[in-house]
Amino acid sequence: MYRQTVFPRWRGFNLLGVYVKGRSPGHYNEEDFQMIADWGFDFVRLPLSYRFWTDEGEPFRIFEDRLAPLDQALRWGEKYGIHVNIGFHRGPGYCIHDRPGGTSGFQEPFDLWKDDEALNCFVHHWVFFAKRYRGESAKNLSFNMLNESSRASIEDHGRVMRAATRAVHEISPDRLCLVDGLSGGNFPLADLGDLAKENVGQSCRGYIPAGVSHYRAPWVDTEGKFPYPLWPGGLAGDEVWTRERLDAHYDAWAGYGEAFNMGVHCGEGGSNHNCPHEVALTWLEDLLSILKAHNIGYAQWEFAGDFGVLDSNRPDAAYTDYRGRRLDTKMLEILRKY
Question: Is the pLDDT score of 102 beyond 80?
Answer without folding.
Answer: no
